[in-house]
Design goal:
The complex is a heterodimer of chains A (about 350) and B (about 325). Chain A is mainly alpha-helical and about 350 residues long. Chain A is built from 13 helices and no strands. Classes of the chains: A mainly alpha (about 350), B mainly alpha (about 325).
Chain lengths: ~350, ~325
C-alpha cells in the first residue's frame, strides 16, 4: 500500500465529513428563516428555566451563531469549533458537555453495530457462498426466501416484531417460550459499579433482541450478493483449473471461490454503512438501549439543539471512519489493489 | 426536438420512415414489458402487491368513513371487534380508517422522493455520462460522497429545525426526504450512459446526423427504461425508509396519520408493553408490505436490465 493510496482515502474521509457538516449548517438555514435555537433560549430565559451559569451559553451562542454576523463568519466559527472538538453544552442538562454525553453512549452503539454487522456479514456471506456451490443443504435453500423477505423491512420494525414475540408474555406462548428483556442495557433492579463480569453478561443478555433485529434483516442481503458473485466465480477458468489440479474442494471453495467473491461484498458493505448506522440508531430507540440513538431521541423530544448537532456530527464521522477502515482493509484482501495502490 | 427549418423540406418519405421506426420501437418496448411481466415472477408479484394496496385504499375509501380516523370516534384502546374491525387507539381513533387514510400519505412521501430523485438523477447522470471530463468527475465525486453521508443524520437536523419553527406537514416531509434521494439514481444512470454512449447503435445514430438531444431521447432513454424504473422505485423506497425513520424519532407530521406516525404514537403510549397489538401491528405490516413490494419490483427490473443476473438469481 502506497502513501498516495492512504492519502487519497484520508482525503475522501475529510471531504465527506466536511461536506456533511457544511450541509447540516446551511440546509436548516435555507429551510427555515427563523432561528428556533435562539427562540428556545429566549423562551427558557423568559420562564426562568435557565440553570445558573447558563447565561454564558446564551452569550457564547450569540457570539458564535449570532444573527448579527454575516453567514460566512458564522460558518467559519462553526467549523473551527468542530475541528477543536468543541460540541458545546447540553441545554437541558446544562453543565454537562455534549461530548461527555456522547462518549458515554458511544460504546453501546459501536458495540451493537460491530457485533451485528460482523455476524450478519459472516453468516450471510457464508450461506450465500454455500448456496451457489454444488451440494448445498436443503434447509439452507428453504431458509433463503425467508431471509430475503425480511431484508427490505426496516430494522426498527423487525425490532418491534421481535419485541412482540420475545419480550412480552402472551397466552399463546407455551411454557418454554424464551422471554428476553424489553428495554435498556442492564436490569433496572441492579445497580452496577464499574464493569464487572455480571454487568457484561447482563448487557449481552439485553443486547440479544436489538442485535437480532439487525442481523435478521441483513443476512438475506449478504447471502443474495454472495450467491450471485459465487456463481460468477464458479465459471472462472482459475476455479476450473484448481479443480482439475485436484485441490481439496474445501480449499477451492474458500481460497479460490470465497476470497474472490468477497471483494464486491466489501464494497457493498462500505456503501451500506450509512444505512446500517441509521438503522441501529432507530433500533436503540425502540429498545431504549442507552446508545447514541436514545440520546438523539431524547434530545429531539426536548429540542436540545447542541446534543442533536453533536450526535449527528459524531454519527457522520463514525460512518465516514468505517468506510475509511474498509477502504484500508480492501488492499490486504485483493493483491491487485495492493499492487496498484 | 425536430427541426422546423431547412431540413423539414426534405422528402416526407424519410419522416414517414422515421415515424414508423419510432412507433415500431415503442410497440416492441410494450410487448417487451408484457413479456417480462409474464415471465419475471418477482416483478409481477411486486406489482401485484402494490396494486392490491392501491385497490385496498380505493375500496376502503368507499366503505370507511374518514371521520372515524379522528380522535374519540371510538372508545379508548378497544381490541378488534365487530363494530371496530381493527380496534381503536389510545385516543379513540379507529385503526382501520386510520390505515385507509394513512397508507396513501406514506406512499405520497415516497412518490415525492421517487419523482425528485429520478429527475435529478436523470439530469446529473446524463450531464456527467454524456459530457464526461471535469463535469463528470465532479458529479461522480459528489454523488459518491453523499452516498457515504448518513442521510438520516442530515434529515434529522433539517426536520428538527423545521418542526420547532413552523411544524411539519406530509408535503414538507416529502420534500425533505426527496432532497437526499438523488444519489443512487445519479450513480446508476451515469454509469449506464457512460457505457451506452460507446455502443454501436449510438455511433450509427451519430453518423446518421442525429443531434445530442435526439440521441438522448430516441436512442438512450428507451434502452434505459428498466434502469430508470428501478431507480424510481429505489428512490421511492429510500424516501419512505427515511420518512419512517424520522417519524420513529418523533420528527414526523404531528397532525397527519402517516403509517410511521401511527407507529410512533403507539410506541409513545407504550403499546407493545400494554399489548395493544392491533394498534402497531397493522401499520408495521403495511409498511413491510410496501417495502417488500418495492423490493420485488426493483429486483425484477434489475434482472430485466442485466440479463446476466437471470442465471444467478
Amino acid at each position: 500500500m502506497s502513501i498516495t493510496y492512504i492519502a487519497a482515502r484520508i482525503g475522501m474521509f475529510l471531504l465527506v465529513v466536511w461536506l456533511a457538516t457544511t450541509v447540516i449548517f446551511f440546509l436548516p438555514r435555507i429551510a427555515s428563516d427563523r432561528n428556533p435555537v435562539r427562540e428556545r433560549l429566549v423562551m427558557m430565559a423568559a420562564t426562568g428555566n435557565l440553570a445558573t451559569g447558563m447565561e454564558k451559553v446564551v452569550e457564547a451562542y450569540e457570539q458564535e451563531y449570532g444573527l448579527d454576523q454575516p453567514l460566512y463568519l458564522q460558518y467559519i466559527r462553526y467549523l473551527s469549533s468542530l475541528v477543536r472538538g468543541d460540541l458545546n453544552y447540553s441545554l437541558i442538562n446544562y453543565p454537562t458537555r455534549v461530548w461527555d454525553m456522547i462518549v458515554q453512549r458511544m460504546p453501546y452503539t459501536l458495540g451493537l453495530v460491530g457485533i451485528s454487522v460482523l455476524t450478519a456479514f459472516a453468516l450471510g456471506s457464508l450461506s450465500g457462498a454455500t448456496l451457489a456451490w454444488p451440494g448445498a443443504p436443503r434447509w439452507l435453500k428453504g431458509a433463503l426466501p425467508i431471509f430475503l423477505t425480511l431484508s427490505p423491512i426496516p430494522y426498527f420494525m423487525l425490532a418491534i416484531m421481535l419485541m412482540f414475540l420475545f419480550a412480552v408474555r402472551h397466552q399463546w406462548q407455551p411454557e418454554w417460550w424464551p422471554l428476553l428483556p424489553l428495554a435498556g442495557a442492564t436490569s433496572v433492579t441492579t445497580v452496577y459499579d464499574g464493569w464487572s463480569m455480571d454487568r457484561i453478561l447482563d448487557t449481552i443478555h439485553h443486547s440479544i433482541l436489538p442485535a437480532m433485529s439487525i442481523i435478521l434483516s441483513q443476512i438475506g442481503f449478504w447471502a443474495l450478493g454472495m450467491r450471485g458473485m459465487m456463481v460468477t466465480t464458479q465459471g472462472e477458468d482459475y476455479v476450473t483449473l484448481a479443480q482439475m489440479r485436484g485441490l481439496k474442494p474445501s480449499r477451492v471453495f474458500s481460497l479460490y471461490g470465497m476470497r474472490n467473491a468477497t471483494l464486491p461484498q466489501l464494497t457493498s458493505l462500505a456503501l451500506a454503512m450509512s444505512l446500517i448506522f441509521s438503522g441501529v440508531i432507530l433500533v436503540e430507540v425502540i429498545y431504549r438501549y442507552p446508545g447514541m440513538g436514545t440520546l438523539l431521541y431524547n434530545a429531539i423530544a426536548g429540542f436540545d439543539y447542541f446534543v442533536i448537532y453533536g450526535v449527528v456530527f459524531v454519527l457522520i464521522v463514525m460512518v465516514a471512519a468505517s468506510t475509511f477502515i474498509l477502504d484500508i482493509v480492501y488492499p490486504f484482501i485483493d493483491p491487485r489493489v495492493r499492487r496498484a495502490a | 426536438m425536430r427541426d422546423l427549418g431547412a431540413e423539414s423540406t426534405q422528402s416526407s418519405a424519410a419522416i414517414q420512415a422515421e415515424a414508423e421506426t419510432g412507433s415500431g420501437a415503442s410497440y416492441s418496448a410494450l410487448s417487451q414489458i408484457g413479456y417480462y411481466l409474464l415471465h419475471e415472477r418477482m416483478l409481477s408479484i411486486g406489482l401485484f402487491m402494490l396494486i392490491a394496496l392501491l385497490a385496498l385504499w380505493l375500496i376502503g375509501g368507499q366503505i370507511v368513513d374518514p371521520k372515524n380516523a379522528d380522535p374519540i370516534s371510538g372508545p379508548q384502546t378497544a381490541g378488534p371487534q365487530s363494530k371496530y374491525w381493527l380496534g381503536t387507539d389510545f385516543n379513540g381513533r379507529q385503526i382501520l380508517p386510520l390505515m385507509v387514510h394513512g397508507a396513501p400519505l406514506t406512499l405520497r412521501i415516497g412518490l415525492y422522493a421517487g419523482v425528485f430523485g429520478l429527475g435529478i438523477g436523470i439530469l446529473l447522470g446524463f450531464l456527467g455520462g454524456y459530457m464526461r471530463g471535469p463535469v463528470d468527475a465532479f458529479i461522480r465525486i459528489i454523488s459518491d460522497v453523499f452516498i457515504t453521508i448518513p442521510s438520516l443524520a442530515v434529515l434529522v437536523v433539517v426536520a428538527s429545525t423545521i418542526k420547532e419553527s413552523s411544524g411539519l406537514s406530509v408535503n414538507m416531509m416529502g420534500l425533505i426526504v426527496a432532497s437526499l434521494s438523488w444519489m443512487w439514481p445519479t450513480r446508476v444512470i451515469r454509469a449506464q450512459v457512460l457505457s451506452m454512449r460507446e455502443s454501436n447503435y449510438v455511433e450509427v445514430a451519430r453518423l446518421n446526423g442525429m443531434g445530442d438531444l435526439e440521441i438522448i431521447f430516441r436512442e438512450l432513454m428507451p434502452n434505459l427504461f428498466p434502469f430508470l424504473a428501478a431507480s424510481f422505485v429505489g428512490a421511492m423506497a429510500s424516501g419512505i425508509l427515511a420518512a419512517v425513520g424520522l417519524e420513529a424519532l418523533g420528527l414526523g407530521p404531528q397532525h397527519e396519520p402517516t403509517l410511521g406516525m401511527t407507529i410512533y404514537w403507539s410506541l409513545y403510549y407504550g403499546a407493545v408493553i400494554s399489548n395493544w397489538w392491533w394498534w402497531y401491528g397493522p401499520p408495521i405490516l403495511l409498511v413491510a408490505w410496501i417495502f417488500i413490494s418495492l423490493y420485488l419490483i426493483a429486483a425484477g427490473l434489475d434482472k430485466w436490465a442485466n440479463p446476466r443476473l437471470r442465471q444467478s438469481l
